[in-house]
Design goal:
alpha/beta; ABC transporter transmembrane region fold; Rossmann fold; 3 domains; 19 helices; 12 strands; elongated
């Protein structure tokens, strides 16, 4: 298990370094600045030691040389500060550009992921990876760049300077060093797994919050507030546990490394004092060594802290890379056909499909929709109506069989040209944050004002749009903001009416509209569907009486097909569905007719 974790961590680190490699010149420049900063920082104790030796004896202070030495110290400190500022800017640029690239690539990957992946993950979980995890990664990376470079170079530079001054005292420092390395390694091994669990649980919590905010009215309607709070408390408690353990291991870093630092300082002080008493070094040189002891141990303290941050960053990066490495939709063939001037001749030939291999859904499905025909699909919930829509649009690919548009298999056509050929209005509305105009013109951004208004009038949306504060320039929030469900549906219908595609898919498109408006929209749809191949998924069978062909589905099979009157005369499954919905209504109509 530990080997597997180490392998994942190692692989993640390689991927991170590969991404940082894009900015290798900035990294090299930052490293050179780190070397310069450390060299200047290590030169200051040398100057300080010289200054101490210049004032050590009574009446022997060399003010002239002391003044020059102090000027050198001042210049070195100013240069160090300037270089640290430049290096910080450089590290910020590397870090946030890497984070930006990662976020762009992750978002781009989401655009290419098959619906099967997005259907299997909660929205909050995916959002958490793209937003929170990349932020955590960028923060850890910035700390790593800022402190790791200078820390490593400081350790190496200090050893070199000390070896040149006195190898014996240097050996005391080097002997104690492994203790600090052991502490850092011990903490690193434990923090990675804890931070990984913390990151995963945070994603789970984000998903729950997203679900509850989106469906708060349903939660309250069914009195699920206590159960929701209980679920949230359980996740929150787990997050608290993982976070506490992660923080505990990261918090013992500082006191542990400070203890080792004290050992190094004490070792240098004792050994240096004994050598100074014997005349091996001057008091100024001892001062220099004590300063080096502080500078040598300080990076270990910082690096140990950096290790925990880097572990957190790697754990977050692993989750982001996992998202980015999910298989995308199958690549289109190089010679894929671009559907042009689509007539709308749709054929489904012996199609098999299931979302899960062990759970069969559609088998031996055959259908021929002639150009300009209206095809209605009806049946009980779960029979495969919406699945057929997903297959027609290639949101999912068939397991076997084939679907053709104008005699061209859709597997051999580009997805973009196929989907441009369809106009789709679903029962579930989707509107983006922006103006009313931007939402209507989503399929045709270059549409004129006259065309936009015409489409809105055709869908009977123009009236309520004009009553909004800024008309077509009114900004609405995510998913329509304060608009009613019916108004959102009308905007979605207007969006399709603006595009006038050769084929239409209407999946309970008028389910959220009042009866009076529905009749008017049905008239608009009737005009829109003239000469266009239309697939109408309906639960209310009154909306499909005029369909050219009605497909009755059950358990993934078409069990009946024909016109409305024909299917009623057969007295089969369709007839039972129809009369179960409208028997009472028709009886009332007959009674009223007799009485009148």
């Amino acid at each position: 298990m530990n080997q597997q974790k180490n392998a994942v961590r190692s692989e993640t680190l390689k991927k991170v370094l590969k991404r940082i490699g894009k900015y290798k010149y900035l990294v090299l420049l930052s490293l050179l600045m780190a070397v310069a900063i450390v060299a200047l920082t290590l030169y200051v104790p040398v100057l300080t030691g010289q200054a101490v030796d210049l004032i050590i004896g009574k009446g022997k202070v060399d003010f002239e040389r002391l003044g020059k030495t102090l000027v050198k110290i001042g210049v070195a400190i100013l240069l160090t500060a300037a270089l640290q500022w430049l290096m910080s800017m450089m590290n910020n640029r590397i870090t946030y550009r890497t984070g930006r690239d990662l976020r762009n690539d992750a978002f781009s990957r989401i655009e290419k992921l098959p619906l099967s992946y997005l259907d299997s993950k909660s929205t909050g979980e995916v959002v958490s990876r793209v937003v929170a995890d990349i932020d955590q990664f960028a923060d850890g990376l910035l700390i790593g760049f800022t402190q790791l470079f200078t820390g490593v170079v400081t350790i190496l530079g200090t050893i070199i300077f000390m070896l040149r001054a006195n190898p014996l005292i240097t050996m005391v420092v080097i002997v104690i060093t492994p203790v600090s390395l052991f502490v850092a390694s011990f903490i690193a091994r434990r923090t990675y797994s804890m931070f990984k669990l913390q990151s995963e649980t945070r994603g789970e919590q984000t998903a729950l919050i997203d679900e509850m905010i989106t469906g708060q009215n349903i939660v309250q309607a069914f009195g699920r507030e206590q159960k929701t709070m209980s679920d949230f408390d359980e996740i929150n408690e787990r997050l608290r546990g993982y976070s506490l353990r992660a923080i505990f291991f990261s918090s013992i870093t500082n006191p542990s490394t400070r203890f080792v630092n004290s050992l190094v300082y004490a070792g240098v002080a004792v050994s240096g004092a004994l050598i100074a008493i014997g005349g091996g070094i001057t008091v100024g040189q001892l001062t220099m060594f004590l300063s080096y002891a502080n500078q040598y141990t300080k990076p270990f303290n910082e690096i140990s802290g950096v290790v925990t941050e880097v572990q957190n960053a790697l754990a977050c990066a692993a989750r982001v890379f996992d998202l980015m490495e999910q298989p995308t939709e199958p690549e289109e063939p190089e010679n894929a056909s671009v559907l042009k001037n689509v007539k709308g001749d749709v054929r489904i030939e012996d199609v098999f499909f299931s979302y899960r291999p062990e759970q069969k859904l559609i088998e031996h499905l055959n259908l021929h929709a002639e150009p300009g025909k209206r095809v209605a699909i009806v049946g009980p919930t779960g029979c495969g109506k919406t699945t057929i829509i997903n297959l027609l649009m290639r949101f999912y690919d068939v397991d076997s069989g084939r679907i053709q548009v104008d005699r061209i298999p859709i597997m051999d056509a580009t997805r973009s040209s196929l989907r441009e050929g369809y106009g789709m209005v679903l029962q579930e509305t989707w509107l983006r944050s922006g103006t009313i105009r931007e939402n209507i013109t989503m399929g045709r951004p270059d549409a004129s004002e006259e065309e936009i208004v015409r489409a809105a009038k055709a869908s009977h949306a123009h009236g309520f749009i004009k009553r909004l504060p800024n008309g077509y320039d009114t900004v609405i929030g995510e998913d329509g903001g304060s608009l009613s469900q019916g108004q959102k549906q009308l905007l979605c219908i207007a969006r399709v009416m603006l595009c006038l595609p050769p084929m239409l898919i209407l999946d309970e498109a008028t389910s959220s509209i009042d009866t009076r408006t529905e009749l008017r929209v049905q008239e608009a749809f009737a005009r829109l569907m003239e000469g266009r191949t239309s697939f109408i998924v309906a639960h209310r069978l009154s909306t499909i009486r005029t369909a050219d062909i009605i497909l009755v589905m059950k358990d993934g099979h078409i069990i009946e097909q024909g016109k409305h009157e024909e299917l009623l005369k057969k007295g089969g499954f369709y007839a039972s569905l129809y009369y179960s919905q409208y028997a009472n209504t028709e009886k009332k109509e007959i009674t009223n007719a007799v009485l009148s």
